[in-house]
Amino acid sequence: MALHLRVAGWKTFHPARLVRRRPWAAILLSAGATAFLGGAAVLAVSLAPMWGIGAETATVTAVEAAPVPVIGSTGGLSISDSIRGSVNQVITAPPVIDRPVNGIAFQMRIPAIGYSSSVVEGVDAAHLEKGPGHYPTSPWPGRPGNVAIAAHNVYWLSFSRLKAGDRVEIQTPHGLYLYEITGSKVVEPDDRTVLQSTAEHQLTLTTCYPLWAGAYATQRLIFFAREIGGVG
Description:
Layout: H1 15-47, H2 79-92, E1 104-110, E2 115-121, H3 125-128, E3 133-134, E4 145-151, E5 167-172, E6 175-187, E7 201-209, E8 219-231
Parallel strand pairs: 2-3, 4-7
Antiparallel strand pairs: 1-2, 1-5, 3-4, 5-6, 6-8, 7-8
């Protein structure tokens, strides 16, 4: 039986309608509480590492590499040992020095004529007064190209006895290189074609000609050689 209350200025109050609305309010309240608790849980989990909780889950460990097979023909050396040895060789290898040491570029010897001399870096008058000089624009022995050395004829008087097949030894700070004389020719003083670069390992020796003429020489004597070996 519905209860009807009427008061002046008041609307009719129906308790049944209030009862019907309460389940929806409870559902909404429950959903809101669940969402709040879920959000709080997610926030707590995300901030947990800040307090050292579960920090180990953030640690990334390296994957252990599979063992490298052993090469039977190398006396039990594994590929990893071989690679490690190569790396050690690269690290411990002495540096290649392509520059003068204490003013000397390298040593040159020609056993066939009993010749031996230090070679300086440079071919201007000041350098050639000290002896043979290496053309700075040419490569060093052991490098690809045309290695060029010049000297005054007074230092190379014995070169009149040089012949094809004689060996020239050049000792640098990074190795010993052997060359074999292949020939010679006389050119004009301004002929620089003999110094042109090449793809081969060659050696060119230049001096004034005739050798006995000293400062009165009017031409150039050129000796050509090819590299036949070296230990660098």
